[in-house]
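Revision sheet: structure tokens.
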Amino acid sequence: MISETLLHKAHEKGSDADYKAYVRQFPSILTNDFKEWVNGDGRSVYAHDRSVSDGAGIAIKPEYSGYPLTQEQHLNTHQFGLSYYNPSEWWDAKKKEMLTRWVNGISPPELPEKRTKEVYVIESAEHLNAIKEKLLAIEVVE
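Predicted:
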């Protein structure tokens, strides 16, 4: 659950639409990559967190409550639930982390043009699903 203090600061900073645009500039929080590109800049899907504790309900999506995912990851969370990747506590922490970054004016990360090595931090057994999907999607060019 996002604290009232953090929500108040978010409202002072800008609108929910401003926040969504900010979050879309981050790579997926699961695999640290983008699947969509706009004018050479990576973009992610803004995935709403639908925690009832934050006011979610049927057709109700709480403000300032989401995280960046690839389209495939986003669809998987709709089909299988967030726990397909990580436990709910992990998602809650990431949701607060993203909003805190925005409120504090932390810019989205600048990614190098070409990566030579990728390191994955596995935070739960379910997190392996996201990494597996990414690795299976890599095309080998010879």
